Amino acid sequence: MWKNKSIQLKFIIGGGDAEQGAWPWMAAIHERDPMGALYPSCTGFLIDRRHVVSAAHCLIEETQVSTPHESDHVPPRPGRGVPYLSHSRPTQATGPALSTMTLPS
């Protein structure tokens, strides 16, 4: 992560945008800023149609799991996230988390 006094940018050096569908097993986890806008905060991977495995710190607060609004496909809706906490304090959560998504009707 690169930081500036007024700007914070996150990127992978030499990386680029992925075409939709290029990585079908990947999931994006979004958070809402105070104004309600979504921004990507974590990633995970699909283990079946309804379950995403990610890092436990990504799901400390259930409200962190969101679906992107700019996508042109119909994603599963966020469901319940269950972090496996390997530390006694949630702020130090490490290890995996499992999120069960609600499929669109």
From TrEMBL:
Keywords: Disulfide bond. The keyword Disulfide bond applies. GO terms for molecular function: serine-type endopeptidase activity. Residues 64-105 are annotated as: Disordered. Residues 12-65 form the Peptidase S1 domain. It comes from the Eukaryota. PANTHER family: SERINE PROTEASE HEPSIN (PTHR24253:SF153), TRANSMEMBRANE PROTEASE SERINE (PTHR24253). This is Peptidase S1 domain-containing protein. It comes from Oedothorax gibbosus.
